[in-house]
Specification:
30% strand; alpha/beta; Rossmann fold; nine-stranded mixed beta sheet; globular
Length: 173
């Protein structure tokens, strides 16, 4: 089963991914991204990648100097790749694993290695995946994922986000 989850920013895609990963256990191999907030002000200051193995690394920050920018966040592609690529490669070596990628978004798409490995996943007809994508096609790879005839696309909304968990877990089992 190939599942794409899309929805407006802040709707709960990452929260849903984390709940699904918890339910699937060791079969779920991959990563999600989380906001990093300043402890004193509560303001968002960056983004980190978190792997299903518990590794974390800040890869986008307002304090990073980079020519790769999304809004006011500098993206450190090497830091992202150092966690994302090995965990996705591990998922691809595992026959019964479900590849988890949250998300194929603007920051992550700066990485050529990431784009290549996502294309490889897309072309593997036997591979199970759960991938989040932006609501809009911010890159041709997002459009390719959306057009995958084997993928089920689920748009997460305020109305369905509390009930959809069981449906997705059932599809992936």
């Amino acid at each position: 089963m190939k599942i794409l989850i899309t929805g407006e920013p802040g709707i709960g895609k990452t929260t849903l991914i984390k709940k699904i990963v918890e339910r699937l256990g060791k079969r779920a191999v991959g990563f999600w991204t989380e906001e990093v907030r300043d402890r004193e002000t509560g303001k968002r200051k960056g983004f980190k990648i978190v792997t299903t193995e518990g590794k974390e690394k800040l890869f986008a920050s307002k304090t990073f100097t980079s020519n790769k920018l999304v809004g006011s966040y500098g993206v450190n592609v090497e830091r992202f790749e150092s966690e994302a690529i090995p965990i996705i490669e591990k998922a691809m070596r595992c026959k019964d694993c479900i590849v988890i990628i949250d998300e194929v978004g603007k920051m992550e798409l700066f990485s050529k290695k990431f784009r290549e490995i996502v294309r490889e996943i897309l072309n593997d007809k036997k591979r199970k995946y759960l991938i989040t994508i932006p609501i809009r096609d911010v890159h041709k790879l997002v459009a390719m994922l959306r057009r995958d005839p084997d993928a089920t696309i689920i748009e997460l909304t305020k109305e369905n986000r509390d009930e959809i968990l069981e449906d997705i877990v059932s599809l992936l089992d």
